[in-house]
User: Fold these one by one.
Assistant:
Number 1:
Amino acid sequence: MAFARINDVVLHYRMQGRTGAPVLALANSLGTDARIWDEVIALLGARYRILSYDKRGHGLSDAPEGDYTLDDHVDDLVGLLDHLGVDRLALAGVSVGGLIGQRFALRHPDRLAALILCDTAPKVGDAAMWNGRIDAVRRDGMASIAEAVMVRWFTETFRRDRADELAGWQTMFERMPVHGYAGTCAALRDADLCDAIGAIAVPTLVVVGDQDLSTPVELVRDAAARIPGARFEVIAGSGHIPSIEQPQALAALMTRFLSEVGHG
C-alpha cells in the first residue's frame, strides 16, 4: 500500500500496470474505494501505468470533518499527480469521479490526453436529495441506507446471481466513514457544471450502464451531448458501476477509445 499527504489529507493510492507506459488514472464513485476498478486494471495493466486511489473521505484515505467541495477533490488529484511526477494522463471517473474528471478537464486541459466519464453528469440530484442523504447517515449510520444504495448501484440480475459479491460491496459501503461520505454528498449537492462542460476540449468518451438507476441513461446521454465531439456508449447488463458488473465491456471501450486518440 502507498500513501501520500496531499493538501493535509493522507491519500491511499496504487500504481499498477506496465512501468513506463502511458498513465491512466481512475477516480471512484461515492461510497466506494479503489477496488471497484480491480477487474479493469487487470485487463488494461499490460498497456498502461494505472493510478487508482481512494478520494478523501473514502477507503483508507483520511476523512476530514465538514463539507467537501468538488474542487477539494480535484485539488487532491492534482496534488497526487504532482507527487508522482505525472504530467500527462488519461483520466476515467465514475459517478462523482466523473464530476472530478469534468472539473479536472476544465481546469487542466493541457494535462489530459483523454477523458472517460462513466455513469455521471454535470449535475446529479438536487439539494433536497443530498441533504436528506446527509441527515440519514449522520443520524442512523451508513447501514441505514445500504440496501437502498445497492439497488441503485446494481442490476437485479447481479443482486440475484452474485449475492456473495453483493454482500462484499455492501460491507465496503457500510464501513465508509460517515463524515467522509456526508462530506462528499455535500460536494455533489453543490456541484453544477451544466453551463461549463461545453468548454471541455479534450477527447471524451461517455458511457453508462443500461440499467443505471443513479444516473439514468438519458441523463448521461444529455451530459455527452453538452461536450463537443464526445462519444456516447451504453453498456448492456450494467447498473451504476460498470467496472464491477461489466469490466470486460468497459475495458474494451476504453482500450479502443484510448488507442484511437493516441494514448497507449
Number 2:
Amino acid sequence: MDNRTSTEQIIAAATNADTMNRRAAMGFLGKIGMGAAAMGLAATSGTAAAAPAKDIDGAVLNFALNLEYLEAAFYLAAVGRVDELRRIGGGANIILPAGLDQSRGMNFKDANVQALARDIAEDELQHVKFLSGALGKASAPRPVIDLNGAFRAAGKAASGGKIDGFNPFLNDLFFLHGAFIFEDVGVTAYNGAATLITNPAYLQAAAGILAVEAYHGGAIRTMLYQQRQVSAAAGLYVGQVVQAISNLRGSVGGMKDQGLSDNAGNMIVAPADKNGVAYGRSTREVLNIVYLAPNATKGGFYPNGLTGSIK
C-alpha cells in the first residue's frame, strides 16, 4: 500500500515530466494555485536571484496572469476583440481612449502592422485562457486596466513632458510604440520569475510563454528600427522616443533595458547582457514599471493594483 499523502502522490506524478500530459498538469496546477491562495503568500520583495520559496507556483503564475490580462487588453482592443477578454476573469473595467471603436479596433494603414497585431492578440488571449483555466478557482480575477490615462502619463514621462495625450491606438506607429512598452517587460518578467517556480512542468510552460513574448518583442523592435529616423511626435524621431521609453523603464526597473541601437548605431533586436542572456526582473522591478512609479502598490496601468498575492 502506498503510504504517501494524496498531496505527495500528486507532486510525484506531476514532477515526472516523461509521463505528465497537459490535463494532468492543469489539474495539479489548480491544486497548487488553491493552496497558494489559501496561504495568502506574498513575494513582492523577492529579487530575480533569490532562492525560490516553497509552494508559491500558484502565486507566481497569478502574477503572470495579471500581466497577460494587460497585454491581452492592449492587443485585443487594437483589433476590435476586447469584449472577448471582458468575458474572462470577472467584470473589472478596461479603460480605453474615448475615440476607439471597440467593435472594430483601430484603423490600421499598414497591412503588416495589422497582421502582427492580430497574431499577437490571439497569442495573448490564449495565454490568459491557459493560465486562468489551469488555475481554475484559484485564478486571480482580472484587475482594472487603464489603457488611456496610463499611456498618456507614460508618454509624457518618457518625453520629458514633450508628448502630451499619447494614444497608442491613434495610428500604426503609435501602436508599435505602445507595444514596445509591454513586450520587453513581459520577457524580463518571465525570466525573473523562473527562479521562483518550483515545479519543472510549470517552468517549462513559463519558458514556452517567454519564448513567444520574445518573438513578439523582436518583431516589434524590428518594425520600429526600420522607422527609427521617422518623425514620431513633438519633434522627436522614433529612435529617440523608443530610447526614452527604454530609459524610463530602466530607471525604475533595475537598469535592465536597451533601446533600438547601441552607441555605434547597431541594431538591438534582443536586449541582453554582455553574455547575450536576456535580462530578468524581480516582481518588484516589474511592478515599478507597470505602476509607473517605484515602490508603488497601485497606479499606472493598474489603477487599483494587481490582483493575487503578488501585487
